UniProtKB/TrEMBL annotation:
Residues 4-187 form the NadR/Ttd14 AAA domain. It comes from the Bacteria. This is ATP-binding protein. GO terms for molecular function: ATP binding. InterPro entries: NadR/Ttd14_AAA_dom (IPR038727), P-loop_NTPase (IPR027417). It comes from Streptomyces capitiformicae. The keyword ATP-binding applies.
């Protein structure tokens, strides 16, 4: 079994796609919690847009650690929701787009001077992990609107820059990848065809299960965020 990572920036459908693909094929799925999920344990009472540059670095390290541990439990292969490159890209784009890059971002709100140097040093580790941990990527392009859930302090510009950097980094590392777009059903059919994966249930059933799980997770995260102090 190969070690397959599904790549893509915010709101490209990585989570729903990987959950559905795991149900469809039986390939075990691995992932790390999102930054905002980790935030509740690491920095109680804070929202992501309130974090300092140093705190964002801490969250990135925590997320990568969680990701690497989960992957290590699946030595025979896995399907990964995201990859270590996402921690790298998240930090790097914040250097370029501002520490809190919303659509109302002002050019003067730059990350502190040390931030890019630290992110680049982290990037060396995260890229090395990607070379060793993943055999191939499926990259999901930006096709859907950004989910307006109030918990993603990013903009269309941030998404576009992240997508460009993700693909550029895969090219730099010479890790093979396939760009797969379309509806969820079309994505699943294409990925199964590319890799010759088995199907243990119908596409429709896999999609139904994935959408249910994604909705449940989204609700739980949103409820947890609402309970945090303002």
């Amino acid at each position: 079994m190969r070690r397959l990572a599904v790549s893509g920036t915010y709101s490209t459908g990585k989570t729903t796609t990987t959950i559905a693909l795991s149900h469809l094929t039986g390939v075990p799925r691995t992932h790390a919690r999102t930054m905002r999920e980790i935030l509740a344990d690491a920095l109680p009472g804070k929202r992501l847009e309130q974090c300092t540059a140093a705190e964002l670095i801490q969250l990135g390290i925590r997320r990568f650690t969680e990701r690497a541990v989960h992957e290590s439990h699946l030595p025979d292969g896995f399907l990964s929701d995201g990859s270590s490159l996402h921690e790298w890209v998240y930090g790097k784009v914040r250097v370029r787009a501002g520490i809190h890059p919303t659509d109302g971002y002002e050019a003067g709100e730059q990350a502190p001077g040390f931030y890019e140097e630290v992110i680049d040093a982290m990037g060396a580790v995260l890229k090395d992990h990607a070379r060793r941990a993943y055999d191939v990527f499926v990259h999901l392009p930006v096709e859907f609107d950004l989910v307006a859930d109030g918990h993603r302090p990013v903009s269309k510009r941030f998404r576009s820059m992240s997508d460009e950097l993700l693909r550029g980094t895969l090219d730099e590392l010479r890790i093979p990848y396939h760009v797969v777009g379309g509806t969820l059903e079309q994505r699943l059919a294409t990925i199964v065809d590319i890799f010759g994966l088995p199907a243990r249930m119908s596409l429709e059933r896999a999609v139904e299960l994935a959408r249910r799980e994604t909705a449940d997770t989204y609700r739980q995260v949103s409820e947890a965020a609402e309970r945090r102090p303002a």
